[in-house]
Amino acid sequence: MQSDPPGASTRSTDAPEKPPASVGFSTAALPVAQQFDAWRDHCSSVVEITEALGPEPGYRAGFRMWSFGHFALSAVQAPPTRFRRTPRQIRRDSLDHWVIHIARKGHHTLQAGDADMRVPPGQPHIFSLDQVMEGQRSEVDWLCLFVARDAFPKLGAALDARREAPLQGPMAGLLGSYIEALAESLPGMASADLPHAAEATRAVVAACLAAGAPPCDPQLAGARLGRVRQIIRGQLASARLDPERLCRLAGMSRSQLYRLFEPYGGVARFIQSERLGAAHRALADAEDRRDVLRIAEAVGFYDPSAFSRAFRREFGYSPTTLRMNAATGWVTASPGTAQHAAAGDFAGALRRLSFGMPASGG
Questions:
Q1: pLDDT score of 333
Q2: More confident residue, 83 or 222
Q3: What is the distance of C-alpha 7 from the center of its chain?
Q4: d(C-alpha 329, C-alpha 301), whole Å
Q5: I need a surface site. Which of 8, 101, 175, 329 has the fewest CB within 10 A?
Q6: Would you say the C-alpha torsion 294, 300, 302, 306 has a positive or negative sign?
Q7: CA distance linking residue 239 with residue 35, whole number of Å
Q8: Shortest CA distance to 75 belongs to which of 15, 145, 14?
Q9: Does the structure show a pLDDT above 90 at 16?
């Protein structure tokens, strides 16, 4: 018998109200025949759920996520499944956050790059959303701490270097305990508490991961990529941002630059993906009052037709459609129930972490 997942409607009447920075989703109230499709739709903006593996009918699963500063913490309970994150999803959502996850119950097997690992319960593990991956998991109750790369500009190479195996040792245990304590505390926090939670989390993650990190050569590809990515993001409005200019700004040769971005489809493709991702974030933000043309120009597109064509190729819908839907509360899940509406946009909430913005949720 499965316990009620996070986000289910059954809760104590004297429980604290969820903070404004939380979003949630549950399949518990849906008909059994619709549960798996609803869960797959909910996850689809970030990860593709390919197959349900559980013996029971239906798919009773739930999700709750709290965002605070450059961090977000999700709590998930779900039956066994297979999943993957594909190159197409990475191109479309432009997410590159680190994820530190820990299973309170159940285990994952994960293949990412050359790594093939099994992550047992209670053991933290780091992966990155810019990785192509696939895997499967048992019935799980797990926590994921999403960390924007902008939160740790100096620790990036150390974090990337620790993605190949589950974290071990006393500091890894301390990090896992902190993430579990954070999950217990966030539901009772007020909005004013969240900046303090972000600072505490930044300090704990830095201390725990730096303590056991292997020595990092400053010329490692991961460190160089992070530095060049920051340069690109700071120059998006410039129509003159091209490989030649980027070489000068980054202080590297053309051959070094091309080798660095070869896995991402090349330098020009990466720059365009960053431009389109920034435009998508702005258009999806209902608080951003600029029109589509001004947003396009702000990220380096000065030909409205070219911007519209590139945007539609990347995301499958027009910038005008996204802007109109954002103004009325854009959701990616299929319509039909209040619980779908409560799900919000999973990928959109994660994109806001790069700017330290809260998730848009009730």
A1: 31
A2: 83
A3: 19
A4: 26
A5: 329
A6: negative
A7: 47
A8: 145
A9: no
Tell which wins on pLDDT, 170 or 3.
Answer: 170
User: Rounded to whole angstroms, how far apart are CA atoms 18 and 245?
Assistant: 47
Q: Which residues contact 305 (CB under 8 A, 6 or more apart)?
A: none
Can you read off the two tokens belonging to residue 315?
Answer: 């995301």
DSSP 254-276: HHHHHHHHGGGT-HHHHHHHHHH
231, two tokens: 């340069």
Q: Is the pLDDT of residue 107 over 70?
A: yes
Share of the chain above pLDDT 70, in %: 79
- The position carrying tokens 């972490």 is 353
The CA-atom distances, in angstroms, between 72 and each of 98, 260, 348 are: 11, 29, 12
Distance from the Cα of residue 204 to its chain's centroid: 20
Give the mean model confidence (pLDDT) for residues 96-116. Answer: 85
Look up residue 137 and give its two tokens: 């998991």
Per residue in 133-184, pLDDT (tens digit) is 999 999 989 999 999 877 776 667 667 777 767 888 888 899 999 999 999 9
Integer angstrom CA distances of residue 339 from 13, 30, 63, 122, 136: 19, 9, 11, 30, 26
* CA distance linking residue 202 with residue 151, whole number of Å: 7
Burial 186-206 (b: 16+ CB within 10 A, else e): bbebeeeebeebbeebbebbb
